[in-house]
Design brief:
This protein has 398 residues and is an alpha+beta fold. The protein is globular. The chain has helices at residues 21-27, 37-45, 85-97, 131-148, 167-170, 198-203, 207-219, 233-250, 262-270, 308-314, 316-330, 343-347, 365-375; strands at residues 10-13, 51-58, 64-75, 107-112, 123-125, 156-162, 179-190, 224-227, 274-281, 284-294, 298-306, 335-339, 352-362. Residues 81-87 have low confidence and may be disordered. The longest helix is centred in the middle third of the chain and has 18 residues, at 131-148. The protein folds into two domains: 10-184 and 356-375, Aminopeptidase (3-Layer(aba) Sandwich); 192-333, Gcn5-related N-acetyltransferase (GNAT) (Aminopeptidase), CATH 3.40.630. 34% of the residues lie in helices and 25% in strands.
Length: 398
């Protein structure tokens, strides 16, 4: 347990349950489920290996104007497995030679954002506030928080996943020696108003992509899909966890491993706003999908699990993408956020890239200067954008 003293414009809490109810009511943030205390409690409860913290920014009248979720995680540089690996090894070698990076220990990374989900889910700013000033106060509060208790030992700070429209605000972080860099984009499908059914979606597609979709349904015809509920989740979790682990191990890098027991709390507290389905071949689970309905207009895809040995034969992942779309249409969503990874296949079902920017700062000045050079070389993995619809409505945010 640690203790961070409050300041004139910031309150600090080491558990979401410690945040007073009047603050939640004052911020009016509950409609965004990522800032609903039930969602945050579920994440915190099931990940004891992460140090969770929360800060509330105040105005001069001591009224709450913003809320931020912080986590300190162990980040292993050697866990990065993409094309940046060789460059990272050079940076790591130089950093260790100068005794600026730990040789064996993981990097203690303080994250402002959601460790497990892509998107702007780290900072909630109340309407009517000067957002640039709030971001400055946030940067100052994070520094105070990190320096207040030696037990925290954060080596670097990461503020994650800001869309292009927010950069004129978040670029204020450069004043505090944070370095921006682009990460893999969030793949977003905008649902058209005239899509009342999944068949309407298929009709909007070019012949080539419509044929591809029908082929995926034919290949996956033997798969049975089951809603995961509080009644059956306990017996399904072990296999779901095994399949999730296969996907996580296949990823270029992860900030942390998600504990699927969190799903039980999600289903218990969020009910129908949390989507969870398992995919069966006979008596065996071969996949699952999960997602959250947020702000009553967006379906956000979360983690999936896939039996890779059967994936190609039964088009498991392809079927999941179409099922996400069918769910979004049936629930009359405006957008479907597919998240990162597998950008090309997601573009083949109609998603387009939404650029996301992170800001990183190392606590040590010299290391931070080295970090800036490194981050200037970081770019998202290129992919071939597909245009599956008859009417092309693609906007690249770059």
């Amino acid at each position: 347990m640690y203790c961070c003293p409050n300041t004139n414009n910031a309150l600090f809490f080491n558990s979401v349950t410690s945040v007073p109810e009047h603050i939640w009511e004052s911020l009016h943030c509950k409609s965004n489920l990522y800032f609903h205390k039930d969602f945050l409690i579920a994440i915190e409860k099931n990940h004891p290996e992460i140090t969770f913290s929360y800060l509330v920014l105040l105005d001069r009248q001591k009224h709450a104007i913003a809320f931020a979720s912080l986590q300190i995680v162990d980040f292993y540089i050697k866990g990065i497995k993409n094309e940046l690996q060789s460059l990272i090894k050079k940076i790591e070698h130089l950093g260790q030679k100068l005794r600026l990076l730990p040789s064996k220990k993981p990097l203690k990374l303080l994250i402002c954002g959601n460790t497990f989900v892509s998107g702007e889910h780290g900072v909630f700013i109340k309407k009517g506030q000067d957002k640039k000033q709030v971001i400055k106060k946030l940067a100052e509060a994070i520094t105070h928080f990190s320096n207040s208790d030696k037990k925290l030992k954060a080596d670097a700070y990461l503020l994650k996943d800001f869309v292009n429209e927010s950069l004129f605000i978040t670029n204020e972080l450069k004043e505090y020696q944070y370095h921006p860099f682009l990460v893999e984009p969030n793949m977003v499908l905008s649902l058209q108003e005239d899509w009342s059914t999944f068949d309407d979606y298929l009709t909007a597609m070019k012949t080539k992509f419509r044929v591809k979709a029908r082929k995926a349904f034919k290949q996956s015809a033997a798969i049975k899909i089951e809603e995961v509920t509080l009644k059956n989740i306990t017996e399904q979790l072990p296999k779901m966890t095994e399949l999730y682990q296969k996907v996580a191990d296949n990823a270029d890098f992860n900030l942390g491993h998600f504990n699927l027991k969190t799903y039980t709390d999600f289903k218990n507290k969020l009910g129908e706003n949390y989507i969870l389905r398992s995919y069966w071949l006979g008596d065996n689970i071969v996949g699952f999908l999960s997602g959250i309905i947020n702000n009553n207009n967006s379906l956000d895809a979360h983690f999936v699990g896939i039996d890779y040995e059967l994936n190609k034969q039964y088009a498991i992942y392809q079927r999941m993408l179409y099922d996400y779309i069918a769910i979004a249409i049936n629930k009359k969503m405006k957008t479907l956020n597919f998240g990162r990874t597998a950008s090309e296949i997601k573009s083949s079902v109609g998603a387009v890239p939404q650029d996301l920017t992170m800001y990183l700062r190392h606590k040590k000045t010299i290391t931070n200067k080295i970090l800036k050079v490194f981050l200037q070389r970081v770019e998202p993995t290129p992919f071939q954008q597909k245009f599956p619809f008859k009417k092309v409505e693609f906007v690249n945010e770059k």
